[in-house]
Specification:
Number of strands: 11
Helix content: 40-55%
Number of helices: 27
Distance between the termini: 45 Å
Mean pLDDT: 90
Strand order of the largest sheet: 3-4-11
Shape: globular
Length: 565
């Protein structure tokens, strides 16, 4: 069996490393028996990533991206295998490494999801782990009851058809079934039936048909129309982050994913009732806003910050986002300006408001003039700070890059450090130190586009907590939060606080255009570098006609959802 494992490993590297520009390849003696691995031929493009500026661009018409094969992310592999093999349990995880992020900060871009020898070996280890767990004593009989009664080719066929359908996200062909059954039987003849099922499972799980999402379609004039099963796959992963459920596969088999109305209905169903319905949007927000960086950070003035407060802040932000998107069906304006958050007794005491004295998390109103919306979340403010002080630079960059969709300026090779106060009597605020530092050096021109946004947030300290004054070695000092900022259209409004930054959502469409472009790019896995993917829907989100959740559902109406070029 060790020799068989080594053979499987070598063959899996060959199968999974097939790139989009590779020719059709005969899998030869591969145990998964694929004559034509799912590789792109003519007309397939790879490697193109969107820039933030492209993502925010608004066009007159919606475009369609190229045909592609997209590797599943490590999170999608985990969800897929947990759903197909629930016996693995909720705590089970894959052996795959963390996926690389794109220029937009997302880990699901088809351009970055490449497969090399290391990834192929990790996928083999994952497949072997699944095979071992489902054929373990006490588990195998619940997965495949016929194994106790017959343990023959018919029983193996039953298993391969049932699990292969959801792994490949389409029915297996008769030839594929025959090859997998033959392979299972050949192993069983040398060992036992369960061992044969284990290695048949390994072959199924690591097959390119399982590890890649096929978005090639069938030619329809100048475009390629996605097949029913390709559409079921897209619906499954966009709206649940996992393989299509039984209802989606049944709809595909019946040809009931053929109209815009049918696609919208399935997206609505999945985002309303699927057990994983919250996961895609949660993943988008987590990667877009980068608030997870606060996890485990320490703060000098708060000894329990790393092991307690930082983790509670993550819960606070997750609950806030779920309330905005799902509880209140809110749009971008509510995301930016909602006057509430979610606190438990510990966070209520930490922040000094909310008066939550018992129980778990509760929705509470924020104090007036102490921040609103997502930007006032402690996780966001603390994640963009240092251990002992705030960072107008990091906070300004967060807004400049993630909310206005601008690329981060490249820093010089040598950045001089900001000088610390020379004596215990020196009374300089953080802003004064930054401004004096930039005046002395060559940093001002680079920092001018983004740092003023950070100055407006200085009334929140490095723990994300509101402060009326800044404590300095020379005593408490008033905080100046007035700043002239530059927006994408070149206008230069004067803002007086974080609230003013949040309320920019009312005066122009910069934030909406950025968010809608990023959300479309995320939903479509980078779309092969194509932008302007859902223009009517983006305009409706900007005008408030669509909520965030409704916008995601309406992406089913975009040309790229069902066609490729």
């Amino acid at each position: 069996m060790k020799a068989l494992s080594r053979l499987l490993s070598a063959l899996s590297v060959l199968a999974l490393c097939l790139g989009c520009s590779a020719p059709d390849t005969d899998a030869g003696d591969s145990p998964d028996g694929d004559d034509g691995s799912p590789v792109c031929t003519e007309g397939c493009e790879t490697g193109i990533q969107l820039s933030p500026e492209q993502a925010r661009r608004v066009c007159e018409t919606s475009e369609t991206g190229p045909r592609t094969l997209r590797r599943l992310t490590s999170f999608e592999v985990r969800a897929t295998l947990q759903d197909i093999f629930p016996e693995l349990g909720a705590a089970w995880n894959t052996k795959l490494s963390v996926d690389i992020s794109s220029k937009l900060g997302f880990s699901n871009d088809s351009a970055t999801l490449v497969v090399g020898g290391s990834t192929a070996k990790e996928m083999l280890k994952t497949a072997e782990d699944v095979g071992d767990l489902i054929t373990a004593n006490g588990v195998f009989s619940t997965i495949l009851p016929c194994a106790d009664a017959s343990a023959d080719a018919a029983c193996a066929t039953e298993f391969i058809n049932a699990r292969g359908l959801r792994l490949f996200r389409r029915p297996l062909t008769d030839e594929e079934v025959s090859r997998y059954v033959t392979y299972q039987q050949s192993v069983a003849d040398r060992a036992d039936f369960a061992t044969g099922i284990k290695w048949a499972t390994v072959a199924l799980v690591q097959s390119p048909h399982a590890f890649y999402r096929r978005e090639l379609g069938d030619q329809d004039g100048s475009t390629y129309k996605l097949s029913q099963y390709e559409l079921a796959t897209e619906l499954g992963y966009v709206y649940s982050g996992s393989t299509p459920d039984a209802d989606l596969l049944a709809a595909a088999a019946a040809g009931e994913l053929a109209t815009p109305e049918q696609l919208r209905a399935q997206a609505t169903r999945l985002s309303t009732s699927h057990p994983r319905r919250l996961e895609p949007m949660s993943s988008f927000f987590f990667q877009w806003l980068q608030y997870g960086k606060v996890r485990g950070q320490s703060r000098v003035k708060e000894p329990t910050f790393a092991e307690s407060i930082s983790l509670k802040m993550l819960d606070e932000t997750n609950l806030f986002l779920n309330t905005v998107v799902y509880g209140d069906n809110g749009g971008v304006r509510q995301l930016m300006t909602a006057n509430y958050t979610a606190l438990d007794p510990a966070l209520s005491t930490f922040y000094g408001f909310g008066d939550v004295t018992e129980g778990g998390f509760a929705r509470v109103e924020r104090p007036a003039n102490q921040g609103v919306g997502i930007l006032a979340q402690g996780s966001m403010l603390a994640a963009t700070s240092h251990q002992e002080a705030t960072s107008p630079t990091l906070r300004g960059l967060l807004f400049y890059t993630r909310f206005l969709c601008n690329s981060r300026p490249k820093p010089p090779d040598i950045v001089p450090p900001i000088e610390e106060a020379r004596g215990v009597t020196e009374a300089k605020t953080t802003r004064q130190k930054f401004e004096e530092h930039h005046a002395r050096g060559t940093c001002a021109s680079c920092h001018k586009p983004f740092e003023p946004f950070g100055f407006t947030m200085e009334q929140f300290d490095e723990t994300g907590r509101y402060r009326a004054m800044e404590i300095t070695p020379g005593g408490d000092q008033p905080i100046n939060t007035v700043a002239t900022v530059t927006l994408n259209d070149g206008s230069t409004p004067v803002l007086t606080s974080l609230d003013d930054v949040s309320n920019l959502v009312d005066s122009n469409d910069d934030i909406e255009n950025c968010m809608s472009g990023l959300l479309a790019a995320y939903a479509f896995s980078g779309a092969g570098g194509q932008y302007c993917l859902a223009e009517p829907e983006r305009k409706k989100l900007a005008s408030g006609e669509l909520s965030i959740r409704e916008f995601l559902i309406e992406l089913t109406q975009a040309p790229h959802f069902s066609s490729r070029r």
